[in-house]
Structure prediction request, 699 residues.
Amino acid sequence: MMPVILWSDALFFLLIAVTLGGAGWARRHEHLRASWAMVWASRRARAAAAVLAVFFAIGFVDSLHYRPQLPVEAGKPPAYSVEVLSALDALLTPLRTHTEKTYSAPLATHSFAKETQEAGGRDFPPLKYPGTHLFGTDKVGQDVLYLTLKSIRTGLLIGTLTTLIMLPAAVLLGIVAGYVGGWVDDVIQYLYTTLNSIPGVLLIAAAVLMMQVVIDTHPDWFATAAERADARLLALCAILGITSWTGLCRLLRGETLKLREMEYVQAARAFGVGPLAIMLRHILPNLMHIVLIALVMDFSGLVLAEAVLSYVGIGVDPNTISFGTMINAARLELAREPMVWWSLAAAFVFMFALVLAANLFADAVRDAFDPRAA
Amino acid sequence: MLAYIVRRLLYAIPILIGVNLITFALFFVVNSPDDMARMQLGVKRVTPEAIEKWKVERGYDLPLFWNGAAAGLGKATQTIFYGKSVRMFAFDFGRADDGRDIGREIVTRMGPSLAVAVPVFVLGLFATVSFALLLVYFRASYLDTAGVVLCVAMMSISGLFYIIGGQWLVSKVWHLVPISGYAEGLTSARFLILPVIIGVVGGIGSSTRWYRTIFLEEIGKDYVRTARAKGLSERLVLFRHVLKNAMIPILTGVVVVIPTLFMGSLLIESFFGIPGLGSYTIDAINAQDFAVVRSMVFIGSLLYIVGLLLTDISYTLVDPRIRFQ
Prediction:
């Protein structure tokens, strides 16, 4: 097999590395350790963290991509399939390959739809793999449990990378606007007010439409369908980031304005420390709690937004498995007779678990790190 | 006061120009009209003549900024930038791909959008503020904790679930109202009641929490202690003092949305088949009608900027201190 590292994989690994590095950093600093101990003291936060850890573990395994080797023909160099699989696919091979013809209810032994039998008459045909589909199968016979597990990675990526992609710009512009002031401040304020004036959904719709044109007119940029879907996912993160960084930027600017007048910053200035060093050494570390809070607070909203955007048709690539594409494919199933409820139920329940855990954890983090919160 | 409003009004102009430039760059500089034509006509087997025809039909065959071939003023006006972007300030949006005038379409579709959005806004505001006041009244009790947990759970549920689940339960199982559709006049109530309820319920979780935080912040202030020391009852303190003073932070979040109510709700309108601006936008996205999406971006931004202006004006009415700054 040939390992493949997609851009989103690399960023996801970077995110995990930064999280671990940050944990090491926090361990060595008394004030950070105290705040995290406060988060950890809450039973609700511990439970939420455990659920999140499971989700992230699934997402991590699903990010180890490779292209399986095709059967070797004598005298030829080994060839690789164009299909990109992940370690999670390998673990779930039975779920992935055991497809039925069409819908089947959870743990059913017979198909959902009647078929003409060879012996005559119409009856429900037995399934190929009876009783193995915990959440049933969807319209084309794919296992719903497999689809929900694969959706997790997409949700996590949208929830985290969106904030991370725009973070450098938001932090840089926020600090510079607050510290330097004057016309620089005016320009940066104008920039984010203007971007903020465009309703988010419409800006995303316009940008996604244009991005589709770019991707469709340059098919030669991507070696595999997975790479193209990945590019679209990252572009979506960037677009969502552009619409959401303005709030963080404004917060950071306001906080920098306050910090600039603090005695310790004035003392540093009196000692002849340059503006760049003051911004980096004295202001940035004191803004990190705002960044952390924004990161965890935005996560759940973004996971929910992905589902809505994919439903509207301006979300991830239709071939990317996500909660949104699952719901979109299943949206008419409740109207069927008898109704097909398991795809929708599985997508909504998993999404609810992820978002609820994220919300509870975010609240605990905000309470511990925000000095204003009671 | 007047000078303040005029200053704010002048400040809105460069922002609107900025929005216009961003939209123009997004639609015409990132991709050339040729790319868009190829995308719409199908990437394969498209002849140069077909592309040319597509561009001429939409007026995309002109140069971007400067038409050297034209005479006099035409050098600036016979361009895509003038025809598609500058004309928007005169509310001339051109035609959609189906040949209809976008401006007229927007005017006729505002009614149905407002018919859903205004009740959702008013009822939602009333419901969430009352719920938040109730939680604050019983603060630090089990009722408060249960209420907050309920809010967190409600905001963790996808908006799609409220719509799909509500339609299924109320329309399909109970047969109380039609699943979707729209009618003019009073008969429309039958169609509107479910979307309005779902719109209100979907927003309760996050808004209630937000208002609760605002009220709790106010309740810790000195004037509340003074009011209590005077012997006022808790109910009087909450409704007469806290609610009044919490108006300023509430106004920030509320007034700015009022103009954007015209835009309607994308999801609710498309699920319930309401012919408003939200479903217009969704149809345009699905049909890749660039002209309509561009117009909606402009209108949406304009309404948002109007909302910011209204917010500033309402501040001066509520808080006299701001007038003298």
Remarks:
- The domain at 102-318 of chain B is CATH 1.10.3720.10 (MetI-like fold).
